[in-house]
Design brief:
five-stranded antiparallel beta sheet; 269 residues
Length: 269
């Protein structure tokens, strides 16, 4: 549970997580599994691991590659992203500790490298997301802090300069953890679901709104498209001119208009 998954060359790469092992598989020298001393049944122990497993969806087979270098400590509820031929693992939880460390895994040689930032880093956290937004940049959002506080901050990390930079955005009042995130159009990042509470203590319900983070200035076509989609229902002149557009452009614009369609709740109000 609470693992991270990387995608590379049609492979799904799983790292870490919280799961169980039988007592016979645990030794005092084991560095890839930390037992949770509060959770066991007979000879079955739950705990945190730092294993790497690869799934090939074409062959339908699993493999456990031999990794090199110093791997991240066992953890769960961390975040991961892929940039080029490297996978990145950020933060996560082991026992009562929430970390802010960052590691990269070469997905060809399977070699781990710890990245030491050359700037101030975000505080340790778990249940956050990290999303690739360019060939050298990742976006971190939200999570649960070391003092169990739901967070709404955003950060950009440049893998070339090894610098973190806090990212200003309009959702500071929308803390989020246990959510999903993916790259969207024009390098946008779309966040959906999750919770705004510390779900182990209180859960007022899951979030169902989508947060769209704009990472860079949009091209002129996108700006025009958004303006039309937002205003076509209130500006008659726009509605009359839509049929004059080329079919391909009109189809794309109609998809965009549907994105801004008011919900039934909004319509009733």
């Amino acid at each position: 549970m609470f693992i991270s998954m990387l995608c590379c060359s049609s492979r799904l790469i799983y790292f870490g997580g919280y799961g169980h092992k039988v007592l016979a598989d645990i030794t005092s020298r084991s560095r890839n599994f930390i037992p949770d001393e509060t959770s066991w049944v007979d000879d079955l122990f739950w705990g945190w691991n730092n294993e790497v497993h690869v799934f090939d969806p074409v062959k339908g087979s699993w493999a456990e590659p031999q990794t090199h270098g110093r791997p991240p400590a066992p953890r769960a509820a961390h975040a991961g992203a892929t940039l080029g031929r490297r996978g990145y693992v950020c933060g996560g939880r082991v026992m009562e500790t929430r970390t802010n460390d960052l590691h990269s895994l070469d997905l060809e040689s399977w070699t781990w490298t710890e990245i030491v930032p050359s700037s101030a880093a975000p505080v340790g956290r778990s249940w956050h997301t990290v999303t690739a937004v360019s060939e050298s940049t990742m976006f971190l959002f939200g999570g649960l802090s070391v003092d169990c506080r739901p967070m709404s901050d955003g950060w950009l990390f440049d893998v070339e300069t090894k610098k973190w930079r806090e990212f200003e955005h309009p959702y500071q009042d929308k803390p989020r953890l246990w959510h999903t995130a993916c790259g969207g159009r024009d390098s946008d990042v779309v966040v959906f679901g999750g919770s705004c509470d510390y779900i182990l203590l209180v859960d007022t319900g899951h979030c169902n709104d989508a947060l769209v983070f704009q990472m860079q200035p949009h091209p002129l076509f996108r700006i025009c498209e958004d303006y039309i989609a937002k205003n076509v229902r209130t500006l008659e002149r726009l509605r009359k001119q839509l049929p004059l557009l080329p079919p391909k452009m009109l189809k794309a614009l109609q998809r965009r208009i549907s994105f801004y369609r008011p919900s039934k709740k909004q319509s009733n109000n």
